[in-house]
Model the fold of this input.
Amino acid sequence: MAREFSLTPKPVPPVETKYRRIQTSIPAPVTVPLLESLHRSELRAMQGQPPLVWDHAEGFQVYDPAGNCWIDWSSGVLITNAGHSHPAVMKAITDQVNSKMLASYMFPNAPRERFAARFAELLPEGHRKIFLLSTGSEAVECAIKLSRTHGLKVGGRKKNIVVSFEKAFHGRTLGSQQAGGIPALKEWIGNLDPGFVQVPFPDGFRTPDTSFDFFLKTLTDLGVEAPNVCAVILETYQGGSAAFAPKPYMQALRQWCDAHKALLICDEVQAGFGRTGTMWGFEHYGIVPDLSTWGKGISSSLPLAACAGRADVMDLHPPGSMSSTHSGSPVCCAAALASLEVIVAEGLVENARKMGDVLHARLNAMAKKYPEIGAVAGKGLVAGVSVVKPGTKEPVADLAWDTVERCWHKGVLMFCPVGFGGATIKICPPLNINEEALAESLDVFEEAFAEILAEHKAARSEAVAR
Ligand code: PMP
Done:
């Protein structure tokens, strides 16, 4: 799945451009003691992405303590939609800290009210009740709880099946992990809840049949009766591949959920807040879900998440029965409000759309040139480049990871998510990236991909010759 990176600094050619600077071995020798210390004190599971110690990050660039600088294609894994360390977000955080209002749990505070009201105002009509939480997994757990509660109310005990999608990722806690569709990540659970079932995601690549009939047929094959479904949850685009479902499929799913009193949940943890060239990812489908889950890019910085949706569903539980200690943390809410206003005021949704066109045009051209690129998916400033054995759909994780590693050495930072055997390279820069930096980083990406491809081919012919 993920790669275990060596902590031994490797000499790499120096880079000095307007946006990138690599002047040491990588990882920078000065950072090795910190990395080694983390390896001693933290669990292994936290390794798996390039061991780049972030010293600070600004806009769409990340700096290590040695002064090396990368164009960031990760947004810290889709967090910093408004850009790293945006002055308005930093000011909101410091002002809030200086106001001596740091935590109040369920007692009301002003930043919580301000963010909830503004977020609700921007959300579609009828989808404006909000529950603030701390992590995406927690928001998904909340959506599952509300779905089962709603199912119980409208259909009785049998209406408790949550349908989700193969290869989906919704978090790592007990419920959210079971809603996920990656079997290897669920092995630890042992006794899986039979109330979670998965159907193929209609991405048009791994699942060629993107008809809604295929959804119905799979449910029948699984022995699931429509009246027993309490919810269907999907990532608005699949994080593992950046693939969207077809719009007609989603519209049919919307109607099917209505017909069977099943809630439609869009997990917007990755897609929300402008990432895909619309403020909310579900806008691409022309639908409004019953519930939505939010996190990551919500504040461009501090930990905040949310579950939002229909008032009648959100209000199913009585006062005091749904809470979380850091729900609506005033500092996180101040950051989130500032980030949201930056996204609106600086036209970052529009920039994501425009830069997305540049990004996808270039990646699609690469896919035509290299048969090792099986699929390019995504919209706006999120893309997934799935690397395959030519002519097949077989993932080739080594090629993907070696490309990520080479880009890291050249000053462009990205990662491979779980989902497609670790063979999808994810591209998701902060939404304020400019065209010059995007073009420069795309050149680096293609150069690295071509180099690694040539090296792999040379290694294979050498092995055959021996
Ligand atoms: N849903 C989606 C779509 C995600 O991508 C993630 C995180 N990668 C989560 C939920 C879980 O979020 P968190 O890591 O904040 O718990």
